[in-house]
User: Fold these one by one.
Assistant:
Number 1:
Amino acid sequence: MGKLDGTRAAVTNRLGHALLVVATALVASAHVGSPDTYFEGAAGPYPIRVIVRNPGVVPGLAEITVRMLAPRRAHRVLVLPVYWDPRTAAPPPPDVAHPVPGDSTLYGAALWLMRSGSYGVQVTVEGAEGTGTALVPVQAVATRRLELQKPLGIALAGLAAVLLAGALTIVRAAVEESVVPPGEAPDRQRTVRGRIAMVVGAMLLGVALVGGRAWWNHVDAAYQSGLDQPVHATAALRAAGAERVLRLAIDDTSWTSRTRQWTPLVPDHGHLMHLFLIRDSSLDAFAHLHPLPLDSVTFEARLPPVPPGRYRIYADVVHESGFAQTMVAMADVDAPATAWRASDPDDAWISGNGKGKTGNVVTLADGSTMTWERGDAPILVEREAPLRFLVTAPDGAPATLEPYMGMAGHAMITRDDGAVFAHLHPAGTISMAAQATFLLRQPGDTVRGALGRRLAEMATSGTAMAGTQTAATGTLSFPYAFPKPGRYRIWIQVKRAGRILTGAFDAIVL
Ligand SMILES: [Cu+2]
């Protein structure tokens, strides 16, 4: 799951322009190959960092840790996963997260995620300064099916046989011997009745076994159909004068299927889709675009003049349920655009970032400098990664950064083989829109689209979105741990003096 597959699909020739169209797609829930949730934020007066480790099965036990980031004492930390759909059963009382031995600032608990889909995990901190709650959206997705191990199967079958034989013996004895006085042998009539009862009992138990098997196969099939399925999308390029238009079409039947019941999309940072283009293998060209919807399955953006080559496409969307998804596709750009008017003012791209790079210090397009303060320690897999960055103006002073789509900064992380793609912010890997759906959901929002409409109105009317951040001092940090070892590239995007700036860095994760 989460791997790019290299299958080529159709090659078409549209309007005489020899543009290659290539498709393939897969998806995973939000992010690719990076299933855990990282969150940094405030629970009232208490700054906290929350990590939720995805169990990979549903129902499953997710591990949650809550770290207090300031030396304020907590009396108690409570965690409660709430399923997005208000029509499901009311949530149980919250669980108490227990202090992790040896670390006075860390609390841990196990969370039962019972259904596939989107959860809002309420993290409540009670302490001397009162009570505060943070909401962390978490996706419960089944990515694997646990196999029944042979020895366990054999042992269970043996136990079942013993139970079955016992049950039939009891039935026979009950009919044949239970009313016979002690010491007397049952007469022939009773013996026959006992035998008949045993046969009837065996038939009933047989029916129960067959029925049980059918029921179980049904449950298993339902589980497998609910496995985090790839949603198919196709990327196509077409010429429009000197410009190129990138079209992403979601052509998966599950997208429109009544049974999957996807809720409508909601805008995240004011955009329905965030699309990232990364030049395959060399990773030396990168674009962050915001395609506009033509209809519910087709999105288009004008392609910046990125150099020719094969590109990986990652498209992030968020559903009204708070479920965030990343679709993956490929596109071949063989006739690059020679002109570009961005379809959206937040679109940005860079190329050639492999040149002139001086390790952890890069010069940005406006002459300012971005420094990765990564320290000297090696970066280890599944350990907190030192993703701290400092932006300084050309005069050397810390740069004044403006929010870029409501965030102090955006970090896009990919493994060189494409097996990992994550898009995060100083608030972590969570989607801000997913968080907003939980914070803004009202009891009346049982009609599909009602909440999405309100969110869209808020986005267009410029109402401040929850979690809008600024980094006045020019520093940024992103809570994250790399999910597997390997070579990674990280793009950091910030906005300074109205201009979107992108810095690229390389990391080797051990
Ligand atoms: Cu972002």
Number 2:
Amino acid sequence: MTPRRDTNWWGWGDPAVTAALDDEALAVLRERIGDLEPWPLATGIEDFALPPAEPLPAALSEAVGVENVFTAKEHRLRHATGRGYADLARLRDGRLEAAPDAVVAPPDAAALRRAIEVCAAEGIAVVPFGGGTSVVGGVEPLRGAHPRLISLDLGALREVEVDPRSMTARLGAGLRGPEAEAALGEAGFTLGHFPQSFEYATIGGFAATRSAGQASSGYGRFDALVTALRLCAPAGDLETPETPHSAAGPALRELAIGSEGVLGAIPEVTVRVRPAPAVRRYEAWIAESFEAGGEIVRAMAQGAGLPDVVRVSDEEETRGSLALSGPRGLAGRAFAGYLGARRRRDGALIVIGLEGDEESVARRRALAVRALRAGGAAHLGQAAGRSWEHGRFHGPYLRDTLMGMGALVETLETAHTWSRLGELHAAVGAAIRGALDGQGTPGLVFCHLSHAYPDGASLYFTFIARGRRGAELEQWAAVKRAACEAIVAHGGTITHHHAVGRDHAPYMKAEVGETGLELLRAAKERLDPAGIMNPGKLLP
Ligand SMILES: Cc1cc2nc3c(=O)[nH]c(=O)nc-3n(C[C@H](O)[C@H](O)[C@H](O)COP(=O)(O)OP(=O)(O)OC[C@H]3O[C@@H](n4cnc5c(N)ncnc54)[C@H](O)[C@@H]3O)c2cc1C
């Protein structure tokens, strides 16, 4: 099957979709980050220069079928990067130093096994590729010690087998989020996994990166949904049993989840599913401050229970979201009046979402409303919540627009315990602001709290600044480094859900310690003795 080519090669998603900012938003942006110099694409796909491809052995074509090996420039280019700012900056500038020699798309799990065996025997590096939405350099074609490299596109593995009685489903790695949801929906179920990249990321990618979705506070992170999986490693297949739980030693399933392609490729996973919700209710509230909003979420998580979606924007993100895309004109003035009357003009926006049957949504909402009111939040109604719900997969298109205008736009995330979340929020925010100032490009730094647990929550930062023309990657690297160092210094995790990839690998020692690293290296050496699987990722 030909690898998919339906997405924008230099940006996000559907090439027909664009996002625009109105004059009011542009004025705010100009006031806060200065004048921008437009950053057009340096080249079209036809003129994009890629390094020459190394020839690959005939045994590889024989393993998967010659019709499943793709060496055309467009395929190599589409598999050469993920979708982080640094990836998009290099595509925009028309400069890629590396690309796979070929894209190999096994039509089934047996062909996948044969392909990995040939690559192991021939010393060819293999980068498993799902939707290519990694934002941490996860699909970067790093060769390590190997002169040849393939991108192993798992997009053809799209089988679905639902077990309605057990409420589980076996899902092929190559299914995108909407494809999996559509197939489950036909049987009356949902997976409930909705990361912002939902429309283009795949089931295999979700498992390989320990992804978390926007509704993970209710449905659970992807790792919590997986009951069993198969890992196709060079040394053999690791298959975990389909049982609800097992006490047979440490969970090997957990070794494969989050392994980011460095141990092998995951052809399929079995997941728990839920009845498709009859009711979806999204609404917005506003707390007095980010701290007060966090306390409300903590009370929910440690008490009556969390809504499926819960997120609290800090004051800067609340102000920024309202300025860039809030209500305008008469509606805007009425909204400002409403906030003023409740003394919440500088408050923190809270979005909650509840999904399920009518009775459970009503019951859980009543508990959530009690916590919100007890914490001093004011109701903003369903329209604002619905507008967040409807726009929730649209943000990445706005990033393309902002980059085209000449802005640096990036996101990063972490998590910590409730006791240290405030400290982490202040430290990372200050590090990003300081680094942007240091580059001579002061910017907007937004944060929201999401993915809440009884013991803590994640923090998600977005920053927007004027791009330093010609030095975009250096500017990005300086800010990213400052943020990562602040996270590590304050004991946060280097990633709550974006994974490690290439960008966070240097911080893995701080995360798991020297013994932890040795253990991961030992697993890799056992499963991938030739070191062909995704070199340069996860492990420093
Ligand atoms: C705009 C945007 C928003 C995002 N929002 C979220 C979010 O809300 N939550 C979240 O968790 N993440 C988010 N991400 C990050 C990304 O979408 C996730 O990491 C996602 O799980 C990656 O899936 P993918 O199929 O695109 O994997 P890819 O990007 O193709 O690969 C990611 C990593 O997994 C490996 N891999 C992929 N498939 C397999 C497989 N079958 N077997 C073994 N290894 C494999 C790759 O080698 C690579 O190391 C976002 C990214 C973008 C660009």
